[in-house]
């Protein structure tokens, strides 16, 4: 692996670049920086255009600049903040908008503020300074908590990935303090020999990594033990900080004229700076594709990592140049060079397709004709790519975007199917998902069940017993998942080959081939809920209801058995049975649309009544001017049984205008078939 500089720009300053950070925009291509000339500047890396945002106070000497992270709300929408956090040598912290307006200034410490960090949700700020204090602030600059006080300067402070703790360095020690549970005692240990100059808490693998004045970089996996181990040999002239990529297990540690990249288990690559420059500050872009290094001579250098290789069967793709990928076909010996208009951020290879993402576009190449890719304009950033047989997925860290290989957008919703997982990967042959949770392997035989029945999805989970001959440890990573085998990588770099149970894969193979008799015999022979649940999902998705009813009966799903039997007993009702089957798959909206298209208004109304969607039921009745009395009467009966007052305005307006005859309503309801 190697580095290539994709952009370089020189800014005429007196004392070089003192602080830089990437804006958390959807494309992560805006770099903000400031220096002792008291100017806050914006560099748009893709367009290579720079501008001055604000002239700061001449008495300020910036030390750190941090962009407020994007926040995710309960409704799954994402908000990108317009604020920056600036720390100065005068003991102040300032919140500055992207327009350059200083919104808040706080005297935070006596002496310089040496480090200031946003929490990952953008709600809180933690600072440390020369006075030995570590403080917690609200985003409006209100002091919330005095976390710690030590007898020497605190050089660095970082949040844990879950925002529950902070780690800070003073002298040769590191200390962890809890933010919310103040009754829990802090933990302190010797992390290096000599003063610690930089520390980071990696969100990728939960490592706490520190760089010391002695030039050694040490890492601590706090989930396993607090015994630090050396991540790299001694590097002379180690002078600055470190920064972890968001999705990768790589750690950047800057020296005077170079920035080496480390990841388990050893050194990976080095970015060499021009001889006359010294690295003063570094940071990753929010999508983990670009490293920006600010230098003492006023230069800012953006570099990307090249040499990454992806393989699939007889094909190999290599990131050869900043805008070039080389594809080799080992069957016929052919070599193709594929170029993009801008520098490549992510790419992946699989299923006869190559997906390439640059800052603004997504290229979909087909192995049958590499020269005519499908090009999509992206409306979001990309952190990672995952590929399956018919679809591929892009994620920006807040949502999942699913596309076909023709470039059509399919979905943006991905439900939660488990607690926190350290690593997940889909099988290359089946619709199965393998995950690492703590020290255990979990196999989702059919994760598609999460889209229409979460309870059924839980029954499709098989905990994998330790078949690897050794302990996989915590934070293991899945390297490859093929057929019924997987390759895991432990945190010490050791790779382990594991064999998985073959029966779920045999069952899925029978279902794919429509060999339902063999699938039933396999489930009857083994009699496990996981296999019956998998068969129920697969047969329901393929609308093989005579098989699905057997599987649901074995799972004691009485309501589903009754529902399917009603469908099977009336084969002449084609369109109504189709709506019922769609409802069984959990797609209420589509089932309602099918009923309305056939002008089956009573069935559509009763569907919403059964689901307690009263406003929608009334809306259908009023819009089509039918069965308004049915909706009003059923609503009145429901409120009387629950002993509740009416609170929906649309029903309150009907009280004096609609006559309710319960006997007549009952006759009309008896005509409904849903």
UniProtKB/TrEMBL annotation:
The keyword Mitochondrion does not apply. It comes from the Eukaryota. One of its GO terms (cellular component) is intraciliary transport particle B. GO terms for biological process: cilium assembly. InterPro entries: Beta-prop_IFT80_2nd (IPR056456), TPR_IFT80_172_dom (IPR056157), WD40/YVTN_repeat-like_dom_sf (IPR015943), WD40_repeat_dom_sf (IPR036322), WD40_rpt (IPR001680). Keywords: Cell projection, Cilium, Flagellum, WD repeat. The keyword Iron does not apply. Residues 311-414, 417-502 form the IFT80 second beta-propeller domain. It is found in: Cell projection, Cilium. Coiled coil: none annotated. Residues 531-672 form the IFT80/172/WDR35 TPR domain. WD repeats lie at residues 106-138. PANTHER family: OUTER SEGMENT 5. This is Intraflagellar transport protein 80-like protein. It comes from Trichinella nelsoni.
